[in-house]
Specification:
There is one protein chain. This protein is an alpha/beta fold. It contains nine helices and eight strands. It has an eight-stranded mixed β-sheet, with helices on both faces. Strand 2, helix 4 and strand 3 form a beta-alpha-beta unit. It binds S-adenosylmethionine. S-adenosylmethionine binds next to helix 4.
Length: about 230
């Protein structure tokens, strides 16, 4: 398949047709990592975690550095395949992956300590209501969601990104106002190293306008503001 210059924020196309680009994007190093900061907010040590929307497995593997056991749940077959290959290759025993939907989790009531959704990015946002009900059903302890803070879609290039419905305010309202989650903002810088790498991963996802900007400014680092939401 010949690759377009950008998928212009069509994450569904990214997950289905370019899981290797998602993998390169998610593996570009973050400092400090979301997981270092999360472990300072919620005690993850020794816990069993269902990581919903596991993607190519980056979040599940990172959580497993702290947790006792992680089950990654993912509905897109192409993403799940990459995640499964990764654990086989690494021989990671405490991480398994399951095909499943965030809105009807394939797990029994109170069957894990924690449920996480790490940038699960459900669309349309009303789907978070079902995810929250399901997460609270399955978790003995907290349901944790990490999303993008309102006004930070695409990180510090929010204002450059065009042609996408920005839904983070609506997501924020569902977690905080409707379901009374606690929350805390965290920052992380993602260093791509070269303009070529940022253009072919971040630029490929976020659009041609962004690619023009990255090249013009020789920008290779993205600053992100994430919001950690949690509820017992
Ligand atoms: C932005 S990626 C995050 C992946 C991973 N958590 C990480 O941090 O790298 C979102 C993932 O959630 C998955 N996803 C979206 N909606 C889903 C649903 N209803 N059920 C299960 N997975 C879903 C997508 O297929 C995608 O792999």
């Amino acid at each position: 398949m010949s690759r377009p210059e950008s998928i212009e924020n069509r994450w569904d196309i990214l997950y289905r047709d370019y899981p290797e680009v998602y993998e390169a994007f998610s593996n570009t190093p973050y400092h400090p990592t979301v997981y270092e900061q999360l472990s300072g907010i919620i005690d993850l040590r020794g816990k069993s975690i269902a990581d919903v929307g596991a993607g190519t497995g980056s979040s599940s593997l990172a959580l497993a550095q702290y947790a006792g056991k992680v089950i990654g749940i993912e509905r897109e077959a192409a993403m799940l395949r990459q995640a499964q290959e990764k654990v086989q290759g690494d021989g990671v025993r405490r991480v398994t992956f399951l095909s499943g939907d965030a809105l009807t989790l394939p797990l029994a009531d109170n069957s894990v300590d924690l449920v996480t959704g790490i940038t699960l990015a459900l669309y349309p946002p009303k789907q978070y209501r079902d995810f929250i009900r399901e997460g609270l059903r399955v978790a003995k302890g907290s349901l944790i969601y990490i999303g993008i803070s309102p006004g930070w879609y695409g990180g510090d290039l929010y204002d450059v990104i065009e042609g996408v419905e920005k839904v983070d305010d609506e997501v924020d309202h569902i977690f905080i106002e409707e379901f009374q989650f606690a929350f805390q903002d965290i920052f992380s810088n993602q260093a791509y190293g070269t303009v070529e790498h940022i253009v072919s991963t971040y630029g490929f996802i976020f659009g041609k306008k962004v690619i023009e900007y990255l090249k013009r400014e020789s920008k290779t680092t993205i600053r992100w503001k994430f919001r950690v939401y949690w509820r017992e």
